[in-house]
TrEMBL record:
Protein name: SDR family oxidoreductase
Domain called Ketoreductase: residue spans: 9-188
Family annotation (InterPro entries): KR_dom, NAD(P)-bd_dom_sf, SDR_fam
SUPFAM superfamilies, A to Z: NAD(P)-binding Rossmann-fold domains
Pfam families named among the record's database cross-references: adh_short_C2 (PF13561)
Presence of keyword Cell cycle: no
Length: 253
């Protein structure tokens, strides 16, 4: 019995053209899922699709503006028209900032909260309603270790990810028993949204606080994502915040 078989399932990975999202998409596709790579950059999304197709997967790129409800709804319908179903939603879009607290503008606050929290709210409404009508589904949100306790220097980002954790657990209750909602909490993985804050000094501080003594590799999120996506392996798992951080949050002095 293959507990992690996703054959016949369709996964939508919002933010699937990024470093973490594309790795998660690769893991889902490698276990049999058809994958919609959703992003704002069509060329980047298509490159991910080409890689997946070269490995024998069924994949297609879709454009979306995660700040626009109509765009999310249109994308969802396009994916359904393509594969006639959606079984898995991965919310992986994100943006970060190292702006000091007293210099954070209203516009920057609104942008970060909109990308990292409001877009998950809208996508969960759109796909959650569809999944509940079908009677099954798995939603996987990508959070961050900065969701709590918050890290220094990333005020708005930390607040947005804390909101995402709360939404995850709320929706797990709201959508049960037919649709499962969980979050993966990555530690430090080099990705687009955190490269600008990972200075040499900050990386040194992180590594001293990480028992595994290194940064994560994007492919190391695949196992958690495949597990949470699979009904057979994680059919009783909902409302969980699954940490993949090399021991960062377990570290004290």
């Amino acid at each position: 019995m293959n507990l992690f078989d996703l054959s016949g399932k369709t996964a939508v990975v919002i933010g699937g053209s990024g470093v973490l999202g594309s790795a998660i998409a690769e893991g889902l596709a490698g276990h049999g899922a058809n994958v919609a790579i959703v992003g704002r950059d069509g060329e980047k999304a298509q490159r991910v699709v080409t890689t997946l197709e070269n490995n024998g997967a069924v994949a297609r790129a879709f454009l979306v503006d995660v700040l626009n409800r109509d765009s999310i709804e249109s994308m969802a319908q396009s994916v359904i028209d393509w594969r006639h179903q959606v079984d898995i939603l991965v919310n992986c879009a994100g943006v970060n900032s190292k702006t000091p607290f007293f210099e954070v503008s209203d516009d920057e606050w609104d942008h970060i909260l909109s990308v990292n929290a409001k877009s998950i709210f809208v996508a969960s409404q759109v796909f959650g309603r569809y999944m509940l009508e079908r009677g099954s589904g798995s939603i996987i949100n990508i959070s961050s270790v900065s969701s709590g306790p918050p890290l220094s220097g990333v005020f708005a980002y930390s607040a947005s990810k804390a909101a995402l954790n709360s939404m995850t657990q709320y929706l797990a209750r709201e959508f049960a028993p037919h649709v499962r909602v969980n979050a993966i909490i990555p530690g430090f993985f080099p990705a687009e949204q955190n490269r600008k804050i990972l200075s040499e000094k900050r990386v040194e501080d992180i590594l001293r606080h990480t028992p595994m003594a290194r940064l994560g590799e994007a492919k190391e999120l695949q196992g958690a994502a495949v597990w949470l996506a699979s009904d057979a392996a994680a059919g009783f798992v909902t409302g969980s915040l699954v940490t993949v951080d090399g021991g960062f949050t377990a570290m004290s002095i």
